Amino acid sequence: MRKKKHRDVHHLSPMMNLVFNIIAGGFALLCVFPFLFVIIISFTDEAALNKNGYSIWPEKWSFAAYEYIFKAGDQLLRSYGVTIFITIVGTLISLVTICLFAYAISRKNFKYRGFFSFMAFFTMLFNGGLVPTYMVATQVLDLKDSIWALILPLAVNAFYILIMRTFYSTSVPDAIIESAKIDGAGELRAFITIVLPISLPGIATIGLFSTLGYWNDWFNALLYIDNPNIVPLQAMLMRIENSMQFLMNNAQLSASGQSLELMRSLPAEATRMALVVLATVPIACAYPFFQRYFVQGLTIGAVKE
Amino acid sequence: MQTIMNSLKNLYRNRIFLLMVLPGALWFLFFSYLPMLGTVIAFKDYRIHRDGFFAGLMQSEWVGFENFEYLFSTNDAFLITRNTILYNFVFIILGLVCSVAMAIILSEIVNKRLAKVYQTGMFLPHFLSWVIVSYFTFSFLSVDKGVMNQILAWFGADPISWYSETKYWPYILTFMNIWKGVGYSSVVYLAAIVGIDKTYYEAAMIDGASKWQQIRHITLPSITPLITILTLLAIGRIFYADFGLFYQIPRNSGPLYPVTNVIDTYVYRGLKATGEITMSTAAGLYQSFIGFILVITSNWIVRKSNKDNALF
């Protein structure tokens, strides 16, 4: 009975419903299609690719790209390793730092909460810009070509602190903390045994934001990393792309020995697309399950307190 | 003496909290506040010094606003400012229209499970990096193998050299921005629409209001505050461009710079490619400074309309 009533409220003529389905479904398809297309290209025979270009239904299918990667893919494995390492270590560091900082500034009995809140939120308004940041990172912290250059710059973010602080203040009542303290628990103990378990959904949201940030990061590698041994996945893909671009822009150089050498060291077309697929599949498979945490984080961020 | 004792006592009393904020505070010091101090490079003839950053800062000569004068005497300053603002302006307007429309469409679709599937599909681009997306666009725009040129050939037209023709790029970049962002931003609006009290719609139906009237007079007014806030906040960030979009999607192609160079890419190239460090710092400070004024102003406007929705 209730269900019927609900449908009545949202009555939409079958015609309009069809139109809406076509628009929404069409756009959803448009969003997913390029990824499917790249998967198809990666399974295309290299000769067919050179003959017909990229096509939705290849003349000849082939696993050669993947066989090649699994046989000769030490660069891929290494980059995978770097990405997994920075994602795990980075997310942990960032969770610990953000959760502690946000908790302290959410507590009304912290005398300096105003100062530290300002310290965090002022960075959302003003920043020193890229060049001074680069200078401090390379000359003061000595991060050039260090794995920490891929971890530290992304570790803290005022926006995540804002989300987490809002989460604490809406879902952890002061009374619980006070009663724990009456029972003799210290501030730290109350935080670990009572506040943390209640805040798990918030922690999950921040954790996922930061996991995604680390997995998809190429900018810090672009800035700080030259050593091929610590190039993460996204940056590796970018490097391959740039070398191709270099060859294309310098067509007159193509005949020279040096660029032939470069050409040979670059993976073939299908192989490059296979690398893209392998870098994307983990995320594409995982995000539907974590979607709601992202939505939650967004809505917390949008409504604030 | 008394005050010193008191503040020491306060520090001691808050020691647990101070320990909690310590890692974050150190991070802000090194990654936000030292760089802010470092913006004085923009007013100096900065030379890298072998004794490190601070020695370099101290010993470089003051030149006042010379770097800025030089920056604004070039044609680049106008170009990157125009590109940044115009692109962002179009992104804000078009993004708003598309995502609100999509949120309404998703909320009206009768089969909720199907709507959920569409929503999941639209959300995918948000989870991909611009590097990955640039491979996607390349599969369409590649000169010899791309889909677009195949379609052109099918119609008997000449192939287009996409990565060196400037005239198409404003459309391509706008399309990519919308493509990547709509799924994500419509989610926020959808959450707001789902939260609207159902009895409004029931009352409207009893009064004989059509679906369009319901959308115009109930749905849109209900989400107007959210639209206002998100738009004002976006305007506050109009001086900041999405580096990935403007650097990765055109594949850093030189001939396209007139239509793809924005403040962020200009600063990056000044630092890493051309080595004009001082001018690049000046451009960065110009961006931060105007950006700061814009954020403050837009927040002030949000605050005036609704205090709870202001950022600070």
Automatic annotation (TrEMBL), chain A:
The keyword Transmembrane helix applies. Keywords: Cell membrane, Membrane, Transmembrane, Transmembrane helix, Transport. It comes from the Bacteria. Residues 80-284 form the ABC transmembrane type-1 domain. Signal peptide: none annotated. Its main location: membrane. The chain crosses the membrane at residues 20-43, 80-103, 115-135, 147-168, 188-215, 270-290. InterPro entries: MetI-like, MetI-like_sf. The keyword Transmembrane applies. Pfam families: BPD_transp_1. It is a multi-pass membrane protein. It is found in: Cell membrane. Belongs to the binding-protein-dependent transport system permease family. This is Carbohydrate ABC transporter permease. The lineage of its organism: Bacteria, Bacillati, Bacillota, Bacilli, Bacillales.
TrEMBL record, chain B:
InterPro entries: MetI-like (IPR000515), MetI-like_sf (IPR035906), UgpAE/MalFG_permease (IPR050809). Pfam families: BPD_transp_1 (PF00528). Keywords: Cell membrane, Membrane, Transmembrane, Transmembrane helix, Transport. It comes from the Bacteria. Residues 81-298 form the ABC transmembrane type-1 domain. It is found in: Cell membrane. This is Sugar ABC transporter permease. It comes from Paenibacillus arenosi.
